[in-house]
Design brief:
With 406 residues, this protein is mostly helical. It is built from 16 helices and two strands. Helices cover 62% and strands 1% of the residues.
Length: 406
């Protein structure tokens, strides 16, 4: 009984395929069960990644993966042996489906009695898949606002988001160490886990600090909500699901969320953003310079200089893209630049949080948001293809010269 425009459908499908979660209409009321099923299929496909899905299909059909395809798979799944790309793709698919089903059962138990029959099971699986894929879509009118004080729903969603956002290589590495198949986790996995914990704990602490004082969103709320709200929005920073109205947050809290969204999840995961390892490498490189060391060292290992240049390049490109999109939208919109910057960061980081201006944007700005979502989703894969090209070193090296900095 609800009519939507073709552009609303296009915007929603783009957001779903890019696992962003930004919407111009309410998903649960504007779409029929068939429409929500299409959205589910789109963000499931987008979360797994077209590259991984194609590898799974080739493996299931008994085909062979080419060398370049294996190299791209290896870049998306650090530490993966090239000989086992097809087998790993199938294992990843089984892992994803298993986690989403377990998450659906737990959410169904948490929501027991709220819905009846097959609808309750569908709602549980939809939100489980949305959380694991870091898609940000919800069938409830106010996302997860009705569960703001429900510890079960909060922690199930956070665990699903974490499993999807850590990256398949990290989860696999953790399982191997737990089973005793490895003595210790790889440097990549340890770096991802360390900085994920730092961002979650630090983000939750700052969120509480900004919003707990008089006039803040947490002021006067029960202690359960004062604990769950900061932890949830720091732990599920890449998913786009929310238990509160983001537009009611203070400017400093919105800036904190922008930083968390810009950093995003980890490589080889369903999350977007600049990635935790990128920021970690840049911070480690800066620390090495402060200490006067020639090498960037972490956990008793030396990082290749190429990694620092790649991390720096990715950061500059991502920040430049963010400013271009934000300034272009700012020209066409009457909203405060802070709201526009938040919206653009959410789109480019494929997160899905919004201060509530998405539906009010002009068609021009919505098209730019769609482009930002596509860049945020396809950007890392495109960059991987560029970085995997053979190095063509020039036979000529120019004389060195000093330039003043700082």
């Amino acid at each position: 009984g609800v009519t939507i425009t073709w552009f609303d459908a296009f915007f929603t499908s783009t957001s779903a395929l890019c696992v962003t979660g930004l919407t111009v209409v309410d998903t649960g009321t504007a779409f029929s069960p068939f429409g929500t099923a299409v959205i589910l299929a789109l963000f499931q496909f987008g979360g797994m990644g077209m590259l991984l899905w194609s590898s799974i299909m080739i493996a299931l059909l008994g085909g062979q993966l080419g060398l370049r395809h294996r190299l791209l798979m290896k870049d998306q799944l650090p530490g993966m042996p090239m000989a086992g790309a097809g087998r790993l793709a199938v294992n990843v698919a089984a892992f994803v489906i298993g986690v989403e089903l377990i998450g659906a059962v737990l959410l169904w138990l948490c929501w027991y009695g709220r819905l009846e029959g097959p609808q309750s099971l569908y709602y549980a699986f939809f939100h489980s898949a949305s959380a694991f894929c870091n898609a940000g879509f919800s069938l409830w009118p106010h996302s997860l606002g009705d569960d703001v004080a429900n510890p079960g729903v909060n922690f199930v969603i956070m665990i699903l988001v974490a499993l999807g956002g850590l990256g398949f290589a990290v989860v696999r590495d953790f399982v191997w160490v737990f089973k005793g198949q490895k003595n210790r986790m790889s440097v990549h996995s340890r770096l991802v886990l360390t900085w994920s914990i730092i961002l979650t704990v630090g983000g939750a602490a700052l969120f509480f600090l900004f919003e707990s004082s008089h006039g803040g969103l947490l002021h006067g709320r029960p202690w359960v909500e004062q604990f769950l709200i900061p932890v949830f929005h720091a732990g599920a920073r890449t998913a786009g699901l929310s238990t509160i109205d983001i537009g009611l947050l203070r400017p400093e809290t919105l800036q904190l969320l922008m930083v968390l969204m810009f950093i995003g999840g980890s490589p080889g995961s369903t999350a977007g953003g600049l990635k935790t390892t990128t920021i970690a490498i840049l911070i480690l490189a800066a620390w090495s310079q402060i200490k006067g060391r020639d090498d960037v060292e972490v956990y008793g290992r030396r990082l290749k200089p190429e990694l620092v240049f790649q991390a720096l390049s990715l950061t500059v490109i991502a920040f430049t893209a963010l400013m271009i999109f934000a300034l272009a939208i700012n020209v066409a919109e009457p909203f405060p630049f802070s709201d526009i910057l938040f919206e653009t960061t959410s789109a480019l980081g494929i997160v899905g949080l919004s201060t509530g201006i998405t539906a009010e944007l002009t068609v021009f700005s919505k098209i730019l948001i769609c482009l930002a979502m596509v860049v945020g989703r396809v950007g890392p894969l495109t960059l991987a293809m560029v970085l995997l090209k053979p190095n063509r070193r020039s036979p000529v090296r120019y004389p060195s010269e000093d330039v003043l900095i700082g």
